[in-house]
Please model this.
Amino acid sequence: MRVLSRFMASATDAAQFPAPSLPEIAFLGRSNVGKSSVINSLVGDKVARTSSTPGRTRAINFFEIRWPGKPRPELIFADLPGYGYAKISREISQEWPKFIEPYLNERATLCLSIVLVDSNVPPQQSDRQLLDFLTASDREFLLVATKSDRLSNNQLSGALRTLTQEYPTARLLPFSAKTGAGRDELWKRIRQVAQQMTETEASSGTSLP
Model:
């Protein structure tokens, strides 16, 4: 499935966020986890820039997502800055209270946070801290294990077992931007939560802000 996407805005301050309108899906993860590749794989186009230099994304980038044949967009993807890379982690962490925490804590239209972890790397403390933050903020999240194509079936099973033990409350999905494994399942979950938010708003007699 290929969808149509349009860049909306790049925000380094809460005042720069687009006006809340559609259900939003946030993508978070450590630098070099393959976040841009996952987004591009979902969209079927290179909307998020990939780089060999970790930490290049320093703002929240917003993209409208529209299904072919539909007159209006139905979703917004929010690509958040990576974290955990030594050279920029301190600077990024200083920026979190400025616009990333307000987004995750207060954004009314945020319906799902997709937390990406590298299936080739052991569980990291920074990922644990993010999941604890999202849990404390009462945010729904999905843990996606990227680069699964780099492991054999046995290695991947072991890696997923380790991740499940480390994050027992998280829903876990293996993913490969290279082969497309997990793409349909991820889209299914994204559409489910977006539809739930839309239906909830409709049943309450209100529209999204």
In short: Residues 51-55 have pLDDT under 50 and may be disordered. The two ends are 29 Å apart (CA to CA). Strands lie at 4-11, 24-29, 60-66, 75-79, 110-118, 141-146, 172-174. The chain is about 35% helix and 20% strand.
